[in-house]
Amino acid sequence: MKEKNMEIKNISVIGGGTMGNGIAHVLALKDYQVNLVEQTEELVNKAVKNISANLDRQIKKEIINLEDKNRTLKNIIAISGIKNIHAETDLVIEAIYENKDAKLKIFNEINNIVKQDSIFASNTSSISITELSANNRPEKFIGMHFMNPVPVMQLVEIIRGYSTNNETFNVIKELTLKIGKIPVEVFDYPGFISNRILMPMINEAIYALMEGVASAESIDTVMKLGMNHPMGPLTLADFIGLDVCLAIMEVLYTGFNDSKYRPCPLLKKMVAAKKLGRKSGEGFFKYA
Ligand code: NAI
What we know:
By secondary structure, the chain is of the alpha/beta class. 45% of the residues lie in helices and 15% in strands.
């Protein structure tokens, strides 16, 4: 007889930034009980406010109605401080900033709090799932890489770490389908598939800008009109966040030990200057 996969009902999302609030939004809309964990009360309230505004946008587009919005918000519990994470949660999805040590610290901290059979997932863009899982339940650890903006984008890359077991993979694949997304199975190599291909293109666009080959507007126009990309690479970099782009290039560079992945000096300089793109109001372009 085929064994039934464990059932996911209660999900904790750690980090309520760009990705975390989107992930909480789509899960709560599908009636999962979501605990959204941020560092402070102020940050978690801000995250819930962002979700509320994004739900309003979906109402305007007639994707959902007011009742859906109210139900979704009711399904979200705001939690401040990682120590207050719900012990009985079935799945933890970590979405804090792209830094291996910070992510490891989170998983080390929650491993003793959260019940032993719950699954740990990371929304990392590039950090090795095998390395993140080394100390904490490696068989029940997986990569769940949502795309930005989460309520709009269909793909979820599901990354199997070296030790991820089949049950964990199947449960996460099933959950992804239940929330209306398309799962794609990927194995654990730097940048997985999406960022291994996307980021070197963005990095090259930044080199072209640094070398004065063309203006930022022209580079984006070439890729939009010439390659039929919906968004130029520099606009996309601003949208993702230049700090995130740099962190991913560093992972590719060190992960493959190959100079073809060296991050562009202009990207490094802009991150140092805190020109992080849309979220800081300025990147390759300016935002109101
Ligand atoms: P972000 O900087 O917008 O949000 C990170 C959030 O984590 C912040 O709100 C911060 O307060 C919170 N945080 C930090 N430490 C915490 C802690 N100890 N406890 C609770 N909350 C904590 O970052 P973003 O863009 O949402 O990225 C999150 C993850 O998703 C990263 O691993 C990134 O690589 C990945 N990702 C990002 C995409 C993007 O387009 N920005 C796309 C796909 C994945």
